[in-house]
Design brief:
Elements lengths: L1 E6 L2 E4 L4 E9 L1 E12 L6 E7 L4 E3 L7 E5 L5 E6 L8 E11 L4 E5 L3 E6 L1
Parallel strand pairs: 2-11
Antiparallel strand pairs: 1-3, 3-8, 4-5, 4-9, 5-6, 7-8, 9-10, 9-11
């Protein structure tokens, strides 16, 4: 079983920054991709940023140039640096990881979510 634990959310004024962390643990053979999603009230969950095992990144247009996804040295931690935050960035942010377990089973796991609130 693969577990993800996020931290780093909070309340910040518009224009400020937050740094989200996600620690991934469990019987992992290989990570294929990790990502950050968000869900605002009344809206569908959307992909914010993704990082593949090969190092490729992808961002939703609304955060390009403001957010940066990265991973730790061990590869089992993923970060999201969020700068120049806007009120429309307010949402619950979820960490996601996909890959293969030690038993070569596919996994697609989620964290519990962390609230990000940006005040105007």
């Amino acid at each position: 079983q693969v577990q993800l634990v996020e931290s780093g959310g909070g309340l910040v004024q518009a224009g400020g920054s937050l740094y989200l962390s996600c620690t991934i643990s469990g019987s992992i053979f290989r990570l294929v991709a990790t990502g950050w999603y968000r869900q605002a009230p009344g809206r569908q969950r959307e992909l914010v940023a993704q990082l593949t095992a090969g190092g490729s990144t992808d961002y939703v247009d609304s955060v390009k140039g403001r957010f940066t996804i990265s991973k730790g040295d061990t590869g089992n931690t993923v970060y999201l640096q969020m700068n120049t935050l806007k009120p429309e960035d307010t949402a619950v942010y979820y960490c996601n990881a996909r890959g293969y377990t030690d038993q070569r089973q596919v996994f697609d796991s989620w964290g519990q979510g962390t609230q990000v609130t940006v005040s105007s």
